[in-house]
Specification:
The chain has 500 residues and is α/β, with parallel strands linked by helices. Among the domains are: 174 residues, 3-Layer(bba) Sandwich (FAD/NAD(P)-binding domain), CATH 3.50.50.60; 105 residues, Polyamine Oxidase, Chain A, domain 2, CATH 3.90.660.10. Helices cover 36% and strands 22% of the residues. It has an eight-stranded mixed β-sheet with strand order 8-7-6-16-17-18-15-19, sandwiched between helices. A five-stranded parallel β-sheet has the order 10-2-1-14-20, with helices on one face. Helix 1 runs parallel beside helix 10, helix 1 packs parallel to helix 16 and helix 7 crosses helix 9. It is globular. The structure holds flavin-adenine dinucleotide.
Length: 500
């Protein structure tokens, strides 16, 4: 090897940028190839022809996103709003208001979440029907074994099996699945549901607290971050769609193929989403030869729709971020008061509203006008003042097969960061990690993990410290250890019976 080791990273979302940044800091000759026109992946932001800021959906940063918060500090950025309160609406009106949990006296998890969330309609008896589910929460410890045990079951079956009332499921758990896992309960893996709910809501009282960027994430974080990467010597090349890799006689990947170009590499990190990797597999004879990559064709991705509306007047919106359920059976949606969140719109004379739909399959074929009409009707159901507003400008962004679908039975096909190629690593929000995080934080963490594997293999520089998630509270830890001991006892009892 002459000069600094060459690493090619494919895909410039949180995962790819995370890997590229760490490798650039350690002096690697790193090239990031991105198929789109700008970095950011699902979190991209850009300006319309009319100069208005839009993005591929609004992104929240929850309390446990320790690694992202630490990165932002390291980059000396100040992109976030203060912690915000949120609300939930159904066609019947306001259903739930969430406080800022870290400001309230801390109770053992998940009591604070249950006690401090203000449910307007849901009876206490329904809320209490969630308690037996705590056994599954304790039993699911994010281990490989736990994923295998729970992944074959749907989240719907899980909640039914543990006696969660129909109403609590419909009005609380399913809305969380629709916005957290982008799919209704009968289409979600029970393992993914338990992992996601524990990380965002149940593990510690403050976990559900959230901040938002005071502009697009593209402008507030990715732009300065990309400048830092290029300042360190990293190359970020956009409009480069990777189609294949070249493999030498020893089985190592020695180049990444991108149209007519070939980029030499001592190591490669893939940081593309599920539909991205599936497209690469269909064009890559090298990947098609490996079962683990062919099996990726069994995975799914979910449609999302991001709409931004400019209204002719200011509408009084009680909370800046709002989640909604019960409007369409299989679709969840959120709306945000951007005058309250984004600096750019703080003094605008009319409201600027972001409305994002998850599992938006049935909306994507509609034309923009039809979509905007539905959005205004839905908003009016939540906040009647929207009915009088004129929409003076709008942006509709369709994101087909954009986000990871954690379908029941999908775990067996997900990849880990280490692959059967000795120098090809995987990262992204769908890649298996023991870390325990989800969404943007998981994507970023898996990018760091892949960079660490490259550093370990090529031997230049220092591995990056990855902050673990906050440990379980003592009573959960104790319950987990008792449960494990009980399970081992039962197992050895059955084993002895069978052998006697
Ligand atoms: C509307 C919406 C709202 C969301 N809300 C939140 C939220 O509030 N909080 C949160 O934490 N998460 C949220 N998410 C999820 C979050 O966006 C993802 O978890 C995260 O961005 C995934 O990052 P990634 O790096 O794994 O992948 P991606 O962001 O998908 O990046 C992959 C990149 O690879 C590129 N690529 C694909 N194929 C190729 C190829 N052949 N060659 C080169 N490049 C290629 C793509 O263009 C893309 O830039 C939301 C997602 C959406 C769509």
């Amino acid at each position: 090897m002459s000069g600094n080791p060459k690493v090619v990273v494919v895909g410039a979302g949180w995962a790819g940028l995370g890997a590229t940044y760490q490798l650039a800091k350690q002096g690697y000759d790193v090239t990031l190839l991105e198929a789109g026109a700008q970095a950011g992946g699902l979190v991209s932001g850009w300006k319309t022809a009319g100069g208005k800021s839009v993005e591929a959906g609004i992104h929240g940063f929850w309390y446990p996103y320790r690694n992202i918060f630490s990165l932002v500090k390291e980059l000396e950025l100040d992109p976030f709003t203060p912690w915000t309160r949120s609300a939930q609406y159904s066609p019947a009106g306001l259903e739930v208001e969430s406080p800022i949990f870290q400001e309230l006296p801390r109770l053992p998890a998940p009591l604070g979440t249950l006690a401090y969330t203000k449910f307007k309609r849901l009876p206490l008896s329904d809320r209490l029907s969630a308690l037996p589910l705590m056994y599954a929460v304790v039993d699911f410890d994010n281990s490989d074994q736990a994923w295998k045990q729970y992944d074959g079951m749907t989240a719907r079956e899980l909640f039914r099996q543990y006696g969660v009332s129909e109403r609590l499921y419909r009005e609380s758990f399913e809305p969380m699945l629709l916005v957290g896992l982008f799919a209704p309960g009968e289409q979600c893996s029970a393992a993914a549901a338990l992992g996601m709910l524990y990380y965002f809501i149940l593990a510690h009282q403050a976990d559900f607290d959230v901040v938002w960027c005071r502009g697009t994430v593209g402008e507030k974080i990715f732009k300065p971050w990309c400048d830092r990467i290029t300042g360190l010597g990293g190359k970020i090349l956009t409009d480069r769609r990777v189609s294949d890799v070249s493999v030498d006689v020893s089985g190592k990947v020695n180049a990444v193929i991108c149209g007519d170009e070939s980029f030499e590499a001592d190591a490669v990190i893939f940081a593309v989403g599920i539909s991205g990797i599936q497209k690469i597999v269909t064009t890559s004879p090298a990947l098609q030869k490996r079962r683990e990559f062919r099996n990726l064709m069994n995975l799914g991705a979910v449609d999302v729709l991001a709409v931004r509306l400019w209204c002719d007047r200011k509408i009084n919106i009680p909370r800046p971020s709002n989640a909604c359920f019960g409007f369409d059976k299989t679709t969840g949606w959120t709306f945000f008061d951007l005058n309250a969140l984004h600096d750019e719109f703080a003094d605008a004379s009319g409201s600027v509203i972001e409305v994002d739909f998850y599992h938006a399959n049935q909306f994507l074929p509609l034309d923009n006008q039809e979509i905007i009409q539905i959005v205004q009707e839905y908003l009016t159901t939540c906040i009647p003042e929207f009915g009088n507003a004129q929409i003076i400008d709008s942006s509709v962004i369709r994101l087909p097969r954009a986000v990871t679908h954690f379908a029941p039975g999908s775990y067996q096909y997900l990849l880990r960061s280490i692959t059967s190629f000795p120098n090809l690593y995987m990262s992204g929000d769908w890649v298996i990690t023991n870390h325990g995080s989800w969404s943007q934080e998981k994507a970023y963490v898996t990018g760091l993990e892949a960079a660490n594997l490259v550093i370990q293999q090529l031997g230049q520089g220092h591995m990056t410290q990855i902050l673990p998630i906050e440990s379980d509270e003592t009573h959960i830890e104790l319950a987990r250890s008792l449960n494990q001991s009980f399970k081992s006892l039962v197992k050895s009892f059955i084993h002895n019976l069978q052998n006697s």
